[in-house]
Write a structure and sequence with these properties.
single chain, 288 residues, alpha/beta, Rossmann fold, eight-stranded mixed β-sheet, 39% helix, globular
Length: 288
């Protein structure tokens, strides 16, 4: 299996990219979330490549081996991640691709799909639904999202997460499939703050009250075939916010629930997730 890593300059930062499979094969772009890196997709990549897919998995800005941005505002999705991905696609000569996002990668994917439907064949949103569906999901989602407010406490949150050998961090993100590797990455200077700045720049309480959406794409409609995936062991996001995303898709929509998996579906159910992705892509491979 061909596996290449790139360091690509895009939108003012150097981005680390895992590139696997035949360069002439149909491409998929896999976008991770907090507190991960592109490593979250490693278990799935061989299966996807074996099915004739080129897998492009970047470390999003501030994560993994990609540069950190200098200011909190640089982590706003509309300023950072969406332009990042467009420039990376151009650098890799990818004219059109399937698009998959997990956790914070999902809002990035929703925004890319809504704004640039000509560049993407399909969208798959894992765990996180459309922004407007998230905001309309009600008291259950507010209760599950308490940690977002905690993440706004710059300095305090970082100190609390690091205290006692990252004890609070380990407890809150306990389902993670490789928590020690994540902590090693976030222990590097500035990296924990960079990851938390994704929350601070996009979904602070003040922004949620003042503006519709995360400031990235608001009410924009997705007009490409979309698959929403949620897990029975999810403890950060309600099922309602994923099911409600259908309202914002004016194209074929499908919802799948994976039981016996935590929030980290790519770690907990890589075969099931891979099968769902492949079926989705094969069904809509000729979509315009």
């Amino acid at each position: 299996m061909r596996i290449v890593t790139h360091t690509i300059p895009a939108n003012g930062l150097n981005h680390f990219i895992r590139d696997s499979g035949d360069i002439s094969a149909p491409a998929v772009i896999l976008l991770h979330g907090f507190p991960d890196s592109s490593a979250v997709w490693r278990q799935m990549t061989p299966r996807l490549v074996a099915e004739g897919i080129r897998v492009i998995a970047p470390d999003l800005r501030g994560f993994g081996a990609t540069d950190m941005a200098p200011r909190k505002a640089d982590y706003e999705i509309n300023v950072g991640a969406i332009p990042d991905m467009l420039e990376i696609m151009q650098a890799l000569d990818i004219e059109r691709a399937h698009l998959v996002g997990h956790d914070f990668g999902s809002p990035v994917a929703w925004g890319l799909a809504a704004r640039h439907p000509d560049l993407f064949v399909t969208l798959t949103a894992i765990s996180v639904g459309h922004v407007r569906a998230f905001l309309k999901a009600g008291p259950e989602q507010l209760r599950m999202s308490w940690y977002i407010l905690f993440h706004q406490l710059r300095g305090i949150c970082e100190a609390a997460y690091r205290f006692n050998s990252w004890g609070l961090f380990r407890r809150h993100w306990s389902p993670h499939g490789d928590i020690d590797a994540v902590i090693a990455n976030l222990s590097r200077p500035g990296r924990l703050t960079a990851g938390l700045d994704w929350y601070r720049a996009n979904i602070s309480l003040a922004r949620m009250i003042r503006q519709p959406g995360f400031g990235a794409f608001g009410d924009e409609i997705v007009r490409i075939p979309t698959l929403g995936i949620w897990s029975g062991g999810e403890k950060y996001l309600s099922e309602k916010q994923m099911i409600g995303s259908a309202e914002y898709v004016k194209a074929p929509w499908r919802y799948e629930r994976i039981e016996d998996a935590s929030h980290w579906i790519p770690y907990d159910a890589p075969e099931k997730l891979s099968s769902l992705l492949i079926e989705h892509w094969q069904t809509h491979q000729g979509s315009d």
